[in-house]
Amino acid sequence: MPSTTSKREGDSMYDVIVVGTGFGGLTAGAVLAKKGYRVLTLEAANELGGSAGKFDRNGFRFAAGATVGMGFEQGGVFSKLFEELEVSPPTMSKLDPIMNVYLPDRDVTYYADQDKWYKEAGRVFGQGENIQAFFNEVFSVADRLYPFIDRKVVFPPATMGEWKNIVSSINLHTLSVAPFVTQSVHDRLKKYDLHRNQPFLTFLNGQLMDSVQTTSEYSPSLLGYMALSVFHRGAFYVQGGLASIIDTLSDTLLHHGGELKKRTRVDSIQRKANSWEVKTKRRDTFDAKHLIVNAPLHNIFSLLSEEDASSLPVKREKEEQQRSWGAFTLYIGADERFLDDSEANIPFHQFIGDYEKPLSEGNQFLFSVSQPGDPLFAPPGKRAITLSTHTEPHQWWNRDQYESLKEQYVERIVGQIEKKFPLFSDHIETLLPGTPVTFQRFTQRRKGLVGGYAPTSKYSLLKAYSPNSRLDGLWFCGDTVFPGAGSLGSSLSGWTVASEIQKGR
Ligand SMILES: Cc1cc2nc3c(=O)[nH]c(=O)nc-3n(C[C@H](O)[C@H](O)[C@H](O)COP(=O)(O)OP(=O)(O)OC[C@H]3O[C@@H](n4cnc5c(N)ncnc54)[C@H](O)[C@@H]3O)c2cc1C
Fold first, then answer.
1. PANTHER family from the xrefs (predicted)?
2. Fewer C-beta within 10 Å: the chain N or C terminus?
């Protein structure tokens, strides 16, 4: 229950403290503030939103990382969240086509509409009937899982309450997906004889890399199917980028009396008798009954005391062995004349350069272009572009090779773009590279590890970390806990934590 004490100026005891304003933290903070909890949110950076934030430079606004909106279709996670918060979502348009994908030897238009997509996929990849049958399975399995996800279950469960919530969310319909639990997406592709269709497989792997963070071989089928179905439910171009959603969530938090302090880095958190104490870099101290950490679990061991950390089910050695990607990004302000008329209104373009190389390090990247009539991003006639590719994070922490590595990546990627947009270089006005070092600096993510954990086997889903830390009053949310990566997953974990706190658990 929220405290009944009225808020006093300078009082450092809160019902809830949230560390971080990513999708997870702001969702939890906004929901709890609306329910009457006294919420304090602390953010290390000058900008809100972490991986989904933005920054302004040289007359352009750039999305820091995330660009594609999801979950705003009727019945979608964000539609329901915004209904609960009683606020309108920012201006956005539903996309169909979702994006253009440029493979080494062919282009494909990825349609949201299923019939259009089957036709296009059959035309570009062949095996049209097999592709249709495979996607029908994807949609059918995902449809059976959505009601389960909607229940905001804590997974993996540990308490009676959590088990009860899971058991009551399962019916015969959900149970029928059980055989998929032990299969990867690749296992299913074999069933449809699609695993040897290299262009289709590469296309599919490209989509999985950007959502599940791994390819079909390592992607649990349930996770992969949910991710593949999401775009067909609704992919969105959000005016001003996903930062506009972040702004709406923070406005809601403030509107309901929540407090938000930017440029306030939390340096340590400590368990007290009945509360959690938070100490900031500037040596301020705050206390709360509930503490929600929206920093990734990669950071948790530098925040907790040895004693508290040793009581966590998350173990440092294991966590550090988990596989996570870094991101190499390019933020480019350009004159729009590099685009043909046919591409002028397509915000998302995925490039894949070589079938034989891994889908990272610039061989695959998402090129997100602000749209005409979106003044939040760029002046008329100009476009703000955020481009991102997965990268092995460790290589970026060697000072001696840092600058030359950056140059190599810029050259490789711009060369790739010019194969599609030959006039691109001539129209660049601003170009800023971002690396894992940049992500650590601006989003606090240790070693620049982003996007949650990359599954390494078909059983990875079962090894997810719970949002419940198992230490009384300490909660986690964001892309390193269940249900995982992306704005949708992070927000859902924050919403789950808010629900659990309201239940008094
Ligand atoms: C390049 C890239 C592209 C992506 N593209 C998409 C996409 O198109 N669509 C999509 O849905 N998702 C995308 N994602 C994934 C998505 O952005 C993330 O999964 C999601 O935004 C993570 O949210 P989070 O809640 O984990 O918080 P984070 O984004 O990690 O934010 C956490 C916040 O906490 C703050 N913080 C951390 N530690 C402290 C501390 N000690 N004290 C105070 N504050 C602290 C940080 O400064 C940060 O603001 C992308 C990610 C990247 C990196």
1. PROLYCOPENE ISOMERASE, CHLOROPLASTIC, PTHR46313
2. N
